[in-house]
Target: Biotin--[acetyl-CoA-carboxylase] ligase
Amino acid sequence: MYNNSANTQFTGKSIHFLPSCHSTNTEASLLIRAQKAVNGLIVITNEQTAGRGQQGNSWLSKADSNLTFSVIFFPEKLHLKDSFYLNIVSSLSIAKTVDELVPENIVKVKWPNDILLNNKKVCGILIENMLRGEHIHAVVMGIGVNVNHSDGNLPFAGAMSSEAAKTFHLQEVFTRICENLEPYYLMLEQGLFAELDALYLQNLYGLNEKKHFSDSEGNFTGTIQAVLPGGLLQVEKESGVIKQYTFKEVSLVK
Model:
């Protein structure tokens, strides 16, 4: 069980706990459709058996070792064209939490919203929106954090505990995430897009550095130049060609 002790106005003040479920995002969506969700409600489970990641990838988590939960928000005036800011808000909040709890280590956001701790992935995020016309009526932020366990079969997977050489209390990490998420979400509600853009770039892995990528044309070396409106990743290849990519059109190998 998790409590709502976070020092927030609404994030995590209502908690829907499930000992086990297929997907917290699915459960959250059902609550929204049944009109049983309030702003900031969190669906959290000890064991997720059919979690979903970006573009249909799976996200599974060892029972009672990690955090798997979904946060529901009802944005007031968020246009669909600005939906990438939900990725920014969620990734910044997790990155800040990891940085606070595992200090003096390298924490970065890998585009669009993976969290890297010492170049190892410790968090995946899946954003799902419900629309009313061209505006977002409701958003479900699915968040999976490797707190005390990582899948050793996955390349570049890590956990907070292994990097910090200590075991974390899940409630402590959960509370800290809630407290860090709400201020960024309020920035979004206030329309502080430029400020969020700047913070995202400050935390972006590989910005202005030569890295190895892969796209439909094969492997290449390039440099991330910017993240454009809508979340497009702008990369300059070594050949001098500048390309813009949407999700899954390019992968950052290392």
Q: What stands out?
A: DSSP finds five helices and twelve strands in the chain. Residues 26 and 51 are 9 Å apart (CA to CA).
